[in-house]
UniProtKB/TrEMBL annotation:
Protein name, entry field: DNA-binding transcriptional regulator, PadR family
Organism: Maribacter arcticus
Keywords, ordered alphabetically: DNA-binding
Residue ranges crossing the lipid bilayer per the database entry: none
Signal peptide interval: none
C-alpha cells in the first residue's frame, strides 16, 4: 500500500497539513516526515511531490523561500494565509470522505 492510488488524491492535503504543523519545510524533509509518521507505509516520490508543490504554489497556497545551506541553495515551502484557510477546508472535506467511506465499508445495520 506504500504508493496506493488512494493516497494520490490526498497528497495536496497531506502537504498542506505538514506545512501547517512544521512551518517551513523543504521537499526531502516532507518526504521523510511522511515516511516517519506512516512508519514507512507511505513513500512520496519526488516525481509526485514536486509537481504537487509547484501546483500549490501556483494556486497561491504556498510561497517559496530560498536559503543557502552547506553551500547549496535549498527551497523551503511555507503556507500563505490563503494556504492555511485551504488546509482547513480540505481537512474538513477529507474527514467527511473518511466518515462516508467508513459507513459504506462497515455499515451499522439496524433492524426496523
Amino acid at each position: 500500500m506504500a504508493n496506493s492510488k488512494l493516497y494520490k488524491g490526498s497528497l495536496n492535503t497531506i502537504i498542506l497539513k505538514l506545512l501547517d504543523e512544521g512551518g517551513r519545510m523543504y521537499g526531502y524533509e516532507i518526504t521523510q516526515k511522511v515516511k516517519e509518521i506512516t512508519k514507512g507505509e507511505l513513500k512520496i516520490t519526488e516525481g509526485a511531490l514536486y509537481p504537487a508543490l509547484h501546483k500549490l504554489e501556483a494556486e497561491g497556497l504556498l510561497v517559496v523561500e530560498v536559503a543557502k545551506v552547506d553551500n547549496r541553495l535549498r527551497k523551503y515551502y511555507k503556507l500563505t494565509e490563503q494556504g492555511v484557510k485551504e488546509k482547513t477546508n480540505r481537512l474538513v472535506e477529507l474527514e467527511d470522505f473518511i466518515r462516508n467511506m467508513e459507513q459504506l465499508v462497515n455499515p451499522k445495520w439496524t433492524i426496523n
